[in-house]
Design goal:
Layout (H helix, E strand, L loop, with lengths): L20 H10 L4 H11 L3 H10 L1
Helix pairs in contact: 2-3
Length: 59
């Protein structure tokens, strides 16, 4: 079995796990943002992807 994290998707696609670097990489690509902006969004609104998307859209 391959451990190619570039093809890995989060088990729970409704949340971002900021302690997993591969998830940060996945979500920065998916949401077209930077790691810094993603981490700020998570710190402001939590880990739910819908909340993070809304925050990023408005900031």
């Amino acid at each position: 079995m391959s451990d190619d994290l570039t093809k890995k998707r989060p088990q729970d696609a409704s949340k971002i796990n900021p302690s997993q670097q591969w998830e940060i990489d996945y979500w920065t690509k998916t949401l077209h943002t930077t790691e810094a902006k993603l981490r700020i969004a998570v710190s402001k609104v939590g880990t739910y992807v819908s909340d993070v998307k809304e925050y990023l859209k408005n900031h």
